[in-house]
Structure formats: C-alpha cells, structure tokens
Amino acid sequence: MVLRLAILILLLGLTVPVSGETLNSCLECHSRVVLSHDFVTDSPIALMDCVGCHRGNPQTRRKDLAHSQRTDADYAWFRLVDTPIMNAARQSIDRFACRRCHVQNRKGNTLAADLDQLLAQRSVDELIQALLEPAYYMPDFALGEKDRQLVILALLAGGVNPLEQDSDDVTIVHFENPASEEHPFEKHCGACHRVLTPHLGGLGTDTIAPNLSGLLTPFYLKNFKDNQLWTADGLTRWIKNPRQIRPLAVMPPLDLNDQQIHKLIDNTWPATQGELHP
C-alpha cells in the first residue's frame, strides 16, 4: 500500500510546499522562462510572482485551470508601468477618448461599464472580441492589432488598483422615442448620431456621424477647434453654423433658436453626465 502511494505521488508530480510557502506550479513548467526575464530586472514585481503579470492560477497542476484567464507575453506588460509600451498604452486611452463613457484607471464618466473591473472579470481573448464586435452604443474604432494591444494593456493596468464598486454595473437601455420637441436629440440629431446619457439611456439610431457620448466633459476628444474641448457655448455656435467653426464640415446648420438649442443641450448633456471621476 505504501509502495502504491509512493508511485502515485511520483506519477502526479506532486510536491508538498514547505510550511508557510504557497504552491506555485507555474515554475514547474516555466522555470527556464523565468530565468530569461532579464529585461525586467529593475521591476518592483518579484519574478517568481508569475500571476502578477501573466494571471492564471498557480495553485493547481491542471493545465486548463492553471491557464484560466492566462495573459500571454504580449499583454503581460501591464504591471510594468514605467516602460515605453505602457506609456503608449496610457496615451491610447486619451487618443480614443475611452473615458468619455467609462471609468479607466479611476478616472472618467460612468455612462458605461467600469473598465477597471475587467482585470478580475475578463480574459484577454474576451477583451479582444469586445473591441472587434463593439456593443450597440460603443463606437467602432476599427482598431488594428497594435492599437488593440495598447488599449487592452491600459485596461489591464487600470484594474490593478480599481475603485471599490458601490453600485451595480451600468445597464444600457435604448428607447426609440418619437422625434418631437419633447425628445430633441431624436428629432434633430438622432438620425446621424448616437449618445449615451445618464438619465435617458441610449439615444439616436445611426452611426454616420460621431458618437456624442460625454461630449461636454473633459474626456471627450479635443476636436472642437484648435484642439479645444467642447463647451456648451461652442456647441451652440456649431449647431447654428458648423462651417464657421470648420469650413469643410459636412453637417448642415440646424434651424433652431437659442431656446431650442439650450433645451437640446440640457436634455442630452446635463451638468452631471454620469458621476465624474477626476
């Protein structure tokens, strides 16, 4: 009986951790890889802490469980914040204005899901798929492989130190309201634009013009004029005569008086467009 038990232990390759140590089965298969990590010798992350960068489950020898939500080498940089690739990743979040709708790295609007929760909830493959097939009110950025990698690296990095959630995930609801003065966005804008709002859900039905979610917040693209942010005053001027702001603008002027414009802005982009994180 003792002999059978000894053979079984050898076959399974089991090792008993020394008291106080945590089993790290990663090193049983990947020890040579760990020894080759010379490019991160100055990292504050211990090289023996495999899951710090690669995720997975180090306390099992079953490959399918050990590799659960595993992060490949291309995406394992998210913990190494002071590297050129992570600097580029952070810039990509601003370039694509992800925070116009989302909280990312503890900053942004809460019009859509908190991206800092994705590290604990989603695999890299799921994040790639979400960017390839965007949700209904998410702009289709048509990202190339390199830009997808940068965005995902930033998303993973933001999840290292997320804000504590004090509410449920945002649920996007879309109602096709009648195009009337009671629903000014649908009447004047929704045939070309879409927008997420904190109080009315998703508005608009088409994507031939830019997504206007979070337009009057610091997180929208700085593309009003001369790399300036959009303001209520600037938007009013744009609505009255877009080509006065941008001579080659495709959008025609809207025949609205000041009262109608103010109602459109207040109805669609209220002062608090979702709780704003500084």
Layout of helices and strands:
Elements: H1 2-12, H2 26-35, H3 51-54, H4 63-66, H5 84-95, E1 103-104, E2 107-108, H6 118-121, H7 124-132, H8 145-158, H9 184-188, E3 195-197, E4 201-203, H10 232-240, H11 242-245, H12 258-268
Antiparallel strand pairs: 1-2, 3-4
Helix pairs in contact: 5-8, 10-12
What labels would you give this structure?
4 strands; 12 helices; single chain; two-stranded antiparallel sheet; elongated; Cytochrome Bc1 Complex, Chain D, domain 2; mainly alpha; 278 residues; two-stranded antiparallel ribbon; 35% helix
Walkthrough of the structure:
- Strand 1 (103-104) and strand 2 (107-108) form a beta hairpin.
- Helix content is 35%, strand content 4%.
- It is built from 12 helices and 4 strands.
- Among the domains are: 98-158, no CATH class; 184-268, Cytochrome Bc1 Complex, Chain D, domain 2.
- It is elongated and about 70 Å long.
- With 278 residues, the protein is mostly helical.
- The protein has helices spanning 2-12, 26-35, 51-54, 63-66, 84-95, 118-121, 124-132, 145-158, 184-188, 232-240, 242-245, 258-268; strands at residues 103-104, 107-108, 195-197, 201-203.
- Residues 5-21 have low confidence and may be disordered.
- Residues 176-278 form the Cytochrome c domain.
- InterPro entries: Cyt_c-like_dom (IPR009056), Cyt_c-like_dom_sf (IPR036909), Multihaem_cyt_sf (IPR036280).
- This is Cytochrome c domain-containing protein.
- One of its GO terms (molecular function) is electron transfer activity.
